[in-house]
Design a protein that fits this description.
Aminopeptidase, 2 domains, alpha+beta, 12-stranded mixed β-sheet, 332 residues, globular
């Protein structure tokens, strides 16, 4: 490809219909889709809609008029406020050619041209070698591996809480105790592995994540109460948009925590089963879980409650250092 014949442009659904081909030809999530019983065509339709979702900026690369690559950026407003950075995720980095060149050029374009971004968080399939090579060439830093697990739901999942424990939806009064548990359990995340991120901000990230879930309708928080206090919690989510477009109601288990003095007594598995039972009653057909690949306690609980690994992903971070020009650039 000649540099003089390359054109970068914002995604336009009326012109860039070929982007669907990039999604359909992406081979690195095939096993996950098979386990979900979702066709690549349906998933491509769903992913194409995400390119125009709120807060998303999608850029196409054409060579001699042909679409050869796509990168999408998703703004992370509350996370930007938390860390004091202008942060974006990179949900899509696709190319119609083998090799890292197209992907690397898309990344370079974002880094050099988009002044409103100063931190990129990118997740790619673990076997997407060309994407990994492009990220390394563009100066990204590897910060962790994530496992995705899933299972088809069964309506007869038994729930047998330990003696003296009752599981119910979290009341407003119980939220403070849930956040106390978060602070003592969720201490490791990919941001803690980035030496350029403030350690205290990385530690308090999950507290804010959980706090943000309480008043959003797609999330449900169950708590295990015993001895007059909340002993553990689990937060689940349903994906209504995916259901509408693909015709399969899916959900996820997003956060779980148990007080340190109540661990290794079966409470975590019990909370998992309670959330799965509740979701099955709501008509959810498939549930997924994402966790760091070295979070062995969480993996043990998910295996125990019927989940199986369907894919793994690598996380990369990129800090974009720009010269500060007085009156023209302000970090919020």
């Amino acid at each position: 490809m000649s540099m003089s014949k390359l054109v970068f442009s914002p995604f336009d659904c009326s012109r860039d219909g070929e982007v669907r081909r990039l999604f359909q030809e992406y081979p690195h999530k095939d096993f996950q889709l098979k386990s979900m019983k979702v066709s690549k065509e349906d998933m491509a339709d769903y992913l194409e809609t995400t390119l125009q979702s709120a807060g998303t900026q999608s850029i196409c690369l054409r060579a001699n008029g042909k679409l050869v690559g796509l990168i999408a950026l998703k703004s992370l407003p509350w996370m930007s406020e938390h860390f004091g950075l202008k942060m974006c995720a990179v949900p899509h980095l696709l190319a119609g050619f083998e090799g890292p060149l197209v992907r690397a050029r898309l990344l370079r374009y974002v880094i050099e041209e988009l002044q409103e971004v100063d931190f990129l968080d990118c997740r790619i399939a673990a076997d997407d070698v060309y994407a990994a090579q492009a990220l390394e060439a563009a100066g990204f830093r590897y910060v962790g591996t994530e496992a995705f697990l899933g299972q088809e739901l069964r309506r007869d999942e038994p729930v047998d809480p330990p003696a003296g424990i009752e599981i119910a939806e979290c009341s407003r009064a119980g939220r403070k105790q849930v956040l106390e548990i978060v602070e003592s359990t969720h201490v490791q995340n990919r941001f803690a592995c980035d030496p350029l991120i403030d350690a205290d901000l990385a530690r308090t990230l999950y507290r804010k994540l959980v706090d943000n879930c309480f008043d959003q309708s797609q999330f449900t928080t169950l708590v295990a109460r015993g001895h007059g206090a909340v002993q553990g919690f689990i937060i689940s989510k349903t994906n209504e948009t995916f259901c509408q477009l693909v015709g399969k109601k899916t959900g996820s288990l997003d956060f779980i925590g148990v007080r340190p003095d109540n661990r290794n007594r079966g409470l975590g598995a019990c909370l998992n089963r309670a959330a799965l039972q509740r979701m099955a009653q709501q008509g959810v057909q498939y549930v997924g879980v994402r966790t760091l690949a070295n979070n062995y306690p969480a993996l043990r609980i998910t295996f125990k409650t019927g989940f199986a690994v369907t894919s793994t992903s690598l996380h990369f971070h990129r800090w974009i250092k720009r010269p500060k020009i007085e009156g023209c650039y302000t970090r919020f």
